[in-house]
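User: My collaborator sent over this chain with a note saying "see what the structure looks like." That's all I know about it. Can you take a look?
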Amino acid sequence: MSYHLTNINKTVYGTKLSHNDVYVILELYFLFNWTQNNLAKEFNVTKDTIRKIVNGKSRKDCFYLYKYQRDTHIPQLDDLVKKHIK
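Assistant: Without extra context I'll predict from the sequence alone. Here is the result:
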């Protein structure tokens, strides 16, 4: 089965963060070495929420797509991350 980072602008019911937000969080954390505290402030969520995302405990669908298919979606991720990098 093949998955794609399409329709990543969707927000999951009951969440503050869209799929885009989660991919950006993962990119900023793993590639740009942002701290969990800085990510929590940037996205207006708790540090616990960020911790669960970057450890793959929540938003598992986004976590696994990011970890295993990131390389095929670098241009999309670059565009999403640009507005958070100053």
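A starting point for your reply to your collaborator: The radius of gyration is 12 Å.
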